[in-house]
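Anyone else keep sequences and structure tokens together like this?

Example one:
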Amino acid sequence: MVVDSKNNFITARGYPELLTVHPTIRNSILTLKHADMESLNVNLAEVIALQSPKTAQVWGVPVPVYDCGGEASEWFSRLLDRSACNYRLVYYASQKSRPLRQSTNKFYKFTNNDTGALPDEVPFNLINQASVDDLNTRLEDIQVTPRNFRPNFVLTGAKSYDEDNWKYVKIGDNVFEIIKACTRCIMTTIDPETGVRNSKAEPLATLKSYRQIEDPVIRRSAGNTPRMGIQMSLRSGPGGVVSVNDPIYVA
């Protein structure tokens, strides 16, 4: 996670350039690449060994993190505002899920283990390719891919929006419970390849026209944020493996 000088998390909602950073990890080495920057390697095992946990903020919730050092700070600061040290890269410093923010569990059955480390709500998001295909038939002057929605999993073989009716998803031997539909924000309007915002706020504007939350009570709380994809939490044991082309079962 990248934080500002006050240790508050930042995202591509405000800093679209973050979408053009490509991370890979091998053993304990995190490598970050960007078309206009030199590659950066961060040894996460070394970070854990040499750093003491500090506190950062995610949606106002304090979370323990390790600071990934001056070189990573300088790299992100140059990328985001050409400064020397206004931003820092941090690494989650706990084996437990971070606390839920107060508003998270108002309508849904989140448990204390569902938030994970640093995501907005849950660590697992699934997109139905058929739903993306249907959205593209409704769009003018733009086409989107699952990457606009940043999922962990892309499913093929279902009908569009079938996921609205699912309660559980099994991928390989891993069982997930669907906590809620994923409501979408302005980040969907940023091209994931270039970091450029769509001038007509698409595909968000079109999604708002036909994918609103139907429950009136939840709608009053969530506003006019449209649904696309599903938020899931792991219900089978930890440590499982998910592979490309795994069969997917739903209930």
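And example two:
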Amino acid sequence: MIQFANLYFLLLIPLIVFLFLIRKNRSVLKFSSVKLLESAGMRKTVKHKIGKYIILSGLIILVIALARPQLPQKAGPASQKGIDITMALDVSGSMQSVDFEPNRLEVARKTMEDFIKGRNDDRISLVIFAGTAYTRVPLTLDHNILRESLAGVHSKSVNQDGTAIGMAVSVGLSRLKKSDSASRILILVTDGDNNAGDIDPNTASQLAKDLGVRIYTIGVGSDKTIIPVDYFGQTRYQQVEGGLDEELLKNVANTTGGQYYRAKDPQALAQIFSTIDKLEKSKFQQDNFVQYHELAYILIEIGLLLLLAGIFIDKYYFVQIP
């Protein structure tokens, strides 16, 4: 809805109309007779009034411009800042296990992508790890690039096999330590125990606590790890030993004020991310501002054009008949 910053200027409009009507009924020059002009075929018609009414319209529009009409734009919070999130995804060979359809890694990727779609105001980075860890995408609000990069992750994205949980946490913290966000979290998704890397997960979690970063750890997979193996052109399935070190993941989460979750099926994994999404909501200031688009400038242009056109029509285009 249009509003006026200087509403009182609109009171001039009735005055202008009143003066216009008074002046219209008065002639500046008095003629004893206009019969000579009328005999020449000149008559007072509506068209002889067009110029005056255009001038009146221009004056009214200029007065409206003085009142500064404004069109409100979209309202928004006075200041807003989302949460900074690092997502660390295990891409080791065991994530190819087919106990999740089609495998653990694909389900984890899809679930993380759905989580990202709901975090429009948050900066998110992506860390992937196996026997070592590295940053695939730094903190960004460009979630399209983030999702595209996530879609390209596969089990060969890290060329060193193993599960370096301590390294994953450490690299994730390097993305968050310079952040000035009021809330910073790290979500770590893995299906193994720490068997690689030079950094102890407990040491890394203590560093996270010191930095004020909460870690949510998610253990992925059922109680059986079944890996597809290429055997002379045929796919066979092999059950492998080993699995989650749940005590370690619980300790990493608890040390930082986060939480450990176990996802034994795709539905449970989706529910876990939904729970984290609800727990970690971005907080915004409640005081809202509204931006306004000033309409006065365009009205001034229109008003001046009408004035010029009206003066030309009234004084030069039509011969005035008193």
